[in-house]
Inverse folding.
């Protein structure tokens, strides 16, 4: 799934009401967008990267070799 589910957002923020979730997300510097009904949409990949930064290296993602561009 691309975005966190409603239950996962509630667990992350501690709030059920979408407006309070948006406030919490803003206060904690989580990027999000809102859908037509005002519910926040948070990318699962951002949460995984923020909470488990070592996952990206485990999956083989590496920083580009910028020296090779010279």
């Amino acid at each position: 799934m691309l975005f966190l589910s409603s239950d996962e957002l509630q667990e992350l923020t501690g709030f059920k009401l979408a407006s309070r979730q948006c406030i919490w997300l803003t206060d904690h510097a989580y990027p999000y967008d809102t859908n037509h009904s005002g519910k926040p949409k948070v990318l699962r990949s951002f949460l995984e990267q923020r909470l488990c930064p070592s996952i990206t290296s485990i999956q083989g993602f590496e920083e580009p070799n910028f020296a090779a561009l010279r």
